[in-house]
Amino acid sequence: MPAALSLLQQRHSAPSRQLGEPAPDEPTLQALLEAAIRVPDHGKLVPFRLIRLRGDAKLRFGEQLAALAIRNDPEMSEAKLEKERLRYTFAPLVMVVIACLHADSKVPEIEQKLCAGNVAYNLLLGAYALGYGAQWLTGWAAYDRNVAAMLGLAGHEHVVGFVHLGTPQIEVPDRDRPALADLLTTWTP
């Protein structure tokens, strides 16, 4: 079996809480990011960009999220608040994938969002191919306009996901996968 197909058949997410150092070093990260942005892009719009969260910035981001969370839910428990504070601190690197939608384009918005989603998925595939672990997460922060403002996003930009990257600290078992036979049909006129 070709190595590329084998990679696709074996790829799985590693829980962000189980990702530790090392993350890809700078040359490896640059190569990973350059590969990740090679996605189908109808109209050559480049409807995506990336934001890197690393080091102390991850904790500061979590602290600001916790402040927003408590403002949105003043009754939030201390345990949930702490979870918000620490959510981005486990993996050594978090890449925020942003969809940059072009409303004036003939390319449908869904295609632009899927293009950005492919960047996030390529990060997962590339990380796995390089021997790292990764997990694509969203959560409420991905959809909150106050978080978007905190990240410096323009009105036409949206978080597609937070891709957590690092080295798995445990052996990550694969999950049950659906059977292809349950998903595939052949259309006939």
What does this structure look like?
The protein is 40% helix and 18% strand. It has 189 residues and is α+β, with helices and mostly antiparallel strands. The chain has a domain of 123 residues: NADH Oxidase (3-Layer(aba) Sandwich). α2 runs antiparallel to α5. The chain is globular.
Q: Which SSEs are present, and which pair or pack?
A:
Elements: H1 3-10, E1 19-20, H2 26-36, E2 48-54, H3 56-72, H4 78-86, E3 93-100, H5 109-129, E4 133-137, H6 145-150, E5 157-168, H7 180-183
Antiparallel strand pairs: 1-5, 2-3, 3-5, 4-5
Helix pairs in contact: 2-5, 3-4
SSE series: HEHEHHEHEHEH
At CATH level 3, the topology of the domain at 13-54 and 89-169 is NADH Oxidase
- Structural class call reads alpha+beta
Give the averaged pLDDT, no decimals.
96
Strand coverage percent: 15-25%
Number of H/I helices: 7
Shape: globular
The CATH class of the domain at 13-54 and 89-169, by name, is Alpha Beta
Number of strands: 5
Task: Please state the CA-atom Rg, rounded to the nearest Å.
Answer: 18 Å
The CATH superfamily of the domain at 13-54 and 89-169 is identified as NADH Oxidase
Please bin the fraction of helical residues.
40-55%
The major pleated sheet works out as: 5 strands, antiparallel
CATH architecture of the domain at 13-54 and 89-169: 3-Layer(aba) Sandwich
Beginning-to-end CA distance, first to last residue? 34 Å
Instruction: List segments where confidence is low: pLDDT < 50 over at least 5 consecutive residues.
Output: none
